[in-house]
Amino acid sequence: MALTRNEVLAWLREEDPRRLDELWRMANETRQSHVGDAVHLRGLVELSNHCERSCAYCGLRAGHTALRRYRLTAEEALDCARLAERLGYGTVVLQSGEDRGLTGEWIAALVHEIKERTHLAVTLSLGERSEDEFRLWKEAGADRYLLRFETSNRALYDRIHPPLRGVRSDRLALLRALQRAGYETGSGVMVGIPGQRYSDLAEDILMFAKLELDMVGVGPYIAHPDTPLAGVLAAGVDQAPNSELMAYKVVALTRLVCPDINIPSTTAINILNRDTGYELGLTRGANIVMPNLTPLRYRALYEIYPGKGTALETPEAFDSRLRRRIAAIGRCVGHGRGDSPHRTTARACAVKGDAQ
Ligand code: 5AD
Prior knowledge:
Layout: H1 5-13, H2 17-35, E1 38-48, H3 74-86, E2 91-96, H4 104-117, E3 121-125, H5 131-139, E4 144-146, H6 154-160, H7 171-180, E5 184-191, H8 198-210, E6 215-220, H9 244-257, H10 267-272, H11 277-282, E7 288-289, H12 296-299, H13 315-328, E8 332-333, H14 341-344
Parallel strand pairs: 1-2, 1-7, 1-8, 2-3, 3-4, 4-5, 5-6
Bound molecules: 5'-deoxyadenosine.
C-alpha cells in the first residue's frame, strides 16, 4: 500500500485504541495475503561479542571494557547450526559485533561448512565489512545479510555512531553493495532513540520501501546503563517514544508499505512484554521469530541491551513454548527456508508454510 509521509506520520501519532485496531487489522490482513500464516523460525547464533566500534547505544561498544569478551570456535558455531536443523528451522543467522578477529576467510570457511553439512539458509549479520568480504561470503554460500541503518536522520546517526579509523559510516552504501553482491538484504531501525522525532520514524518507514529491502527488523531502543546514550534525556521536541506500542506501529506500517517482505517480531519487543510481545508483533504485521541458539554460557555476555541474557531457557524449552504460543494465535510454523517472497516472488502457503 502506498502511504504518504503525512499518513504514516498520522498513524505514528495515533493514540485512539479503536483507530489503532484498524491499523492492526490492515497490517494483519496484508501480512496474511502476501506472506501467509506461516511463522518462519531463524536460529540465531551470536558468534562473538568483540566489537571495535563505539556506538553510543550498544552494550558491546569497545569502550565497555568491563565486559568479558568471547568468540565461538568454528566447531561450537557448527553445533549451533546443527541444532537449528534438529529443531526444524530453515535458517541460521550468524551475528556478531564488528570483530576483525573473525577474518573474512574464517567466516567463509564456516559458511561453507554449514552449507556442506546442513540444508540451512545462512544469514550473516556481522556489521560493516568490506565489499570484498561480502562477495567472498556470498561465494561461500551465504544467502542473506542483515544490516540495520538504525535511523535515516543523518545527523542523529552520526551522533550515535561515530566514525571508525576516521571513516564515516555509510550503511546505505553498504546495503546497496550487499544487494549488488546478490544477498537477500535486510535492514531496520531502533524505535525511540533519544533525539529521534516522529517525522524521522516516518522517513525510516518510507526508506524501507525505497531501498527495496527483502527483510526489515525493528525494535524499541532500550537504554544500556554502560553506554553514553543512557544518560541522555529523551525529552526533545517531538521525541518518538521507545515504547512497546510505538514499536508495533512501526511493524504494522512497515508491513503496509512493504507487503511481501519478511518482518520479525523481535526479541527487543518481547523483552518489553515477555508474556505476549511475540504474539502482538505477529498479529500486527510480523511473520518471523528468531530463537536464540547461542550456548547459554555466553548469553549474558551478548548484552547489546539489558534483559537479553536473563530468564534463560534451553533452546529446546524455548522452542516448544514458542510453538505453543504460535499455535495459540492460530498460526503455523513454516517449513523450508522461508525466503523473502519479495525476492523470490513465490508466495508462502497460507497453511502449511512454503513448499520446500
Ligand atoms: N536497544 C535496542 N536495540 C539495540 N541494538 C543495539 N543496541 C540497542 C539498544 N540499546 C540493535 C541495533 C543493532 C541490532 C543488532 O541491535 O539496531 O543493529
